Amino acid sequence: MRIKKLDLLIIKSFLGPLLLTFSISEFVLLLQSLWKYLEKMIGKGLDTIIILKLMWYILITLVPMALPLAILLASIMVMGNFSERSELVAMKAAGISLWRILRPLIVMVSLLAVAAFFFSNNFMPQATLNMKTVLYEVKSKKPSISLRPGEFFSDIDGYVLRIDGKDKTEQILYNVLIYDHTQNTPTASLTTAKQGRMFSEDQGNTLVFVLKDGCTYDQSTTDRDFMTHPLMRIKFASQTIRLDISNFALQKADTSRYSNHYQAMNLARLNQNIAILTKENRDFDMSMSKNFVNRLNLNTTALKSSYIGKDFYSAYASLPKEKKDAVRSAAIQEVSFIQGDLGIMADKDAADKEFIRRHDIEWHRKFTLSVACIILFFIGAPLGAIIKKGGFGMPVVLSVIAFILYFVIGIIGEKSAVQGAWSCVLGMWSSSIVFLPIGLFLTMKATSDSTLFNIEGWQKNFNSIKSFFSKRKETPN
C-alpha cells in the first residue's frame, strides 16, 4: 500500500513539470517557427482563424522536438527535487532501490513513447499536410490593399490608384485618381474625384469606389474616332467603380497538392512509395544500360572474337585521309553525345536515390521520437539524482546542453544520410547510438551513489593524480 502511494507521489511530481516544460518548449519553438514564416504573413491582412489554424498545425509538427526536451527537463527537475529535499535518501534508507523508485516513471515514459509513435504515424502526416497547404495559401495571397496618401498603388492588375488623404475610418478618401489600363491601349483612362468612399463586397473579391464630384478622361487611339473625339471628358456628380480583387483573397488550395510529400505519409504509404520508387529507379538504370549497349553496338560474342578488331583497324588504315578524318570526327561526336547522356543519367539517378533516401529517413523518424523519449529520460533522471539540484537552475542548463548535443548530432546524421555519405539507419539513429551508452553510464553511477558532479570528489582525484606524479618525480632513478 505504501509502495502504491509512493508511486502515485512520484507520478504526480513528474506530471506537473512535464506539462509545464512541454508547454514552454512548444511556445518557444512556435515563436521560432512563426519568425521563420513571418515574412510570408506580413501585410496580407490574414484572418485570425487562418493564423490560429496555422499555429495549431505548427504546434503539432513541433511535438517531436518538444516532447523529448520536456521529458528530459521534467526528469531532471523531479529527481533533483527529491535529492535536494533528501526525499531520495529517505527512500533509499527505507530499502527502496533507485530502479524501484524510477519504475513508475519508466512505465509512464514508455507509455508516452508508444503514444508518441502512434502520434507521429497517424497525426503528424495529416498535420504536416494541412500546414503545407495553409502555408501555400498564405504565400499565394497578395498583400492587403493599403492606400497611403501621396503614393501610387499598382498591385491591382490593370489599375493604378492614388489619393491625397483619408479620414480616420480609412473609408472616406480625398482627391482620388484611378488610372485604368485594362483596355490594352498606350494611354490610360483617368478618373478623378474630389471625394470618394471605399469598401469591399462579394466576400472581399470586389473593391468598390463610390466617387463624388469628379471627371473621367478617355483618350481614344483608334484612327476612326481620333479626328472626331480625340479626348472625351465626362463629368459626374456620383459614380461607382468596381474593381476585381479576387486574387487578393485567400484562395483555398487542394490538399492533394502535398499529399504525395514524404512528410505527409504514414508507415504504410512510405513502405509502398519506397518499393515503387526503388523499382522505378532500377528499371530506369536497366533501360539506360540497354540503350547504351545498343548505341555502342556492343555484342558480347563479337567482343570475344579478336579478328573483328583486326579487320576494323586494317579497314580503317586503308581509308584515305579525308575518310579517316570523317570517321574520327563521327566517333568523337558520338562519344561526346554518350558522355552528355551519361551525365544526365547520373544526375537523374542521384536525384532518384536521394528522393528514396528521404523516404527512408522519414520512415525511421517515426521510431526515433519514441526512442528519444526513453533515452533522454535515462539521461535526465540519473543526472537529477546525481547533481541533487531541482527547480529551473542547473537542471535547465544541463537539459538544454544535452538536448542541443542530441539535436545537433541528429541533424548531422540526417544531413549525411540525405547526401548518401551515411546509411539512413546510421544517420537517423546516430543520436541514439551516442546517447544510449551515456544514459546507461549515468544510470549506473546514480544507482551506486556516485559523486560524478561533486567538485570535492574531482578535486580529491586531481590531488591524488598530482601527488602520484610528484612522488615519481622525487624518486631517484
Topology (elements, then pairings):
Blueprint: H1 2-41, H2 48-61, H3 63-84, H4 87-93, H5 98-140, E1 152-153, E2 159-162, E3 165-166, E4 172-180, E5 189-201, E6 206-218, H6 223-226, E7 232-244, H7 267-296, H8 300-304, H9 306-317, H10 321-387, H11 394-419, H12 424-428, H13 430-447, H14 455-474
Antiparallel strand pairs: 1-2, 2-4, 3-4, 4-5, 5-6, 6-7
Helix pairs in contact: 1-3, 1-5, 2-5, 3-10, 3-11, 5-10, 7-10, 10-11, 10-13, 11-13
Describe this structure in words.
The chain has 477 residues and is α+β, with helices and mostly antiparallel strands. It folds into 3 domains: 2-141 and 363-393 and 429-454, no CATH class; 152-248, no CATH class; 256-361, no CATH class. Helix content is 66%, strand content 12%. The protein contains 14 helices and 7 strands. Strands 1, 2, 3, 4, 5, 6 and 7 form a 7-stranded antiparallel beta sheet that branches. β3 and β4 (172-180) form a beta hairpin. α3 runs antiparallel to α11 (394-419) and α10 packs antiparallel against α11. It starts with a helix and ends with a helix.
Provide key terms for this protein.
alpha+beta, 14 helices, 7-stranded antiparallel beta sheet, 477 residues
Fraction of helical residues:
55-70%
- Helix segment tally: 14
Query: How many structural domains does the protein architecture include?
Result: 3
Structural class: alpha+beta
Biggest β-sheet strands, sense, barrel: 7 strands, antiparallel
Globally, the shape reads: flat
